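anyone else get weird line breaks when pasting these?? whatever heres mine. first is seq + tokens for prot A
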Amino acid sequence: MLFPVSRIPDGNRWNSEIMETGSIIGLLVAGFVLVLFEVFVPGGVLGTIGALLVAVAIVAGFIHSATWGLALLVISLAAGLLGFYLWLKFFPRSPIGRRIVLGNDAKDWHGFDPRQQELVGAEGVSHTPLRPAGIAIVNGNRLDVVTRGERIAANQPVRVIKVEGNRVVVTAIEDNETPSVTAANP
């Protein structure tokens, strides 16, 4: 039997000891080992089974005696908190941790190109019909652009009037306006 149960009849009653102390400690150790393996084999299954084994060991300890149960509860909490602290402290600097944990904190990352702000006032040509979104060629670069709601046909001169993050807003250049620089449509 994996976990020996001593249910020996003692006259008219059963022995109150459900599991031997070695089995309870075995459950506790097996639970912590499975939680430790969860670090290396992510997915949640091993950690969940390990946590359940620790909980069963604590319950079995309380059934054995209140002192045993309280001792196992305190030991489990202390070992869990110590393990979590050590994991936070040392795991990110370990060889495995360096491969898993992100190296920089993304302070310098931008969701848009800040140089696009220089496009305000630039002129180009609509490459596709803009209704209201489409593609325009501005300064020789193909850009995703939007209008303020109006529709602009393909191959019409446009001017960038606003840049908000990645959103480049254009408007049509009227016939009576002469575009200063028009990008060729490739």
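and prot B, same format (seq, then tokens)
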Amino acid sequence: MKRRRGGRREPSRSLPGTSRPSIYSAKTLKPFLWADVPAKWSNTDGSRRVAGEAAEFGICSGFAVPMLSVHHWQSVLSFASSAKSCALSPRQQVQLVTMAVYAGMSIQALSSDDSGEDGLLTDREKEVLLWAAAGKTSSETSQILGVAERTVKWHSNKAREAFGVSTTTQAVVEAVRRRLIHP
């Protein structure tokens, strides 16, 4: 691994035995189909070797969800398929992302102390997360609650900080997992 500006690590293109989804997930935080990995990340000897070994076990395609926590750990959850081409609808992709975020948050929770959750979130932060869970934007939530959109974003940010996550979706998943909200 070599260092890149901002302290984030960048994989070397010559890492032996590294799959193309693994290499590409270090470059993006957007979920992607394995087939969509740019050629410069998939045409390495190591990537071809891993792909060949995976094919021996019937793994031909998949969908990957890179994740980055505010505690600076980076991971990727891949959903593998035996199909030659992994064809997922946008809805199916969202469902897999939700599952990946839930799994990532569960793993993070296993490695952290969950004591003292009673005062973890304010009532307003819980309310903002409930509306986010219902699919409302910050603007829509501000109209529903009768507050400024900036206030909604502030409470959302405070909830993310409380859980040590980087997205509101992750905060919603964590609040549900800890039974702090019930959408």
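btw re prot B: The domain at 2-88 is CATH 3.30.450.80 (Beta-Lactamase). The chain has two domains: 2-88, 123-177.
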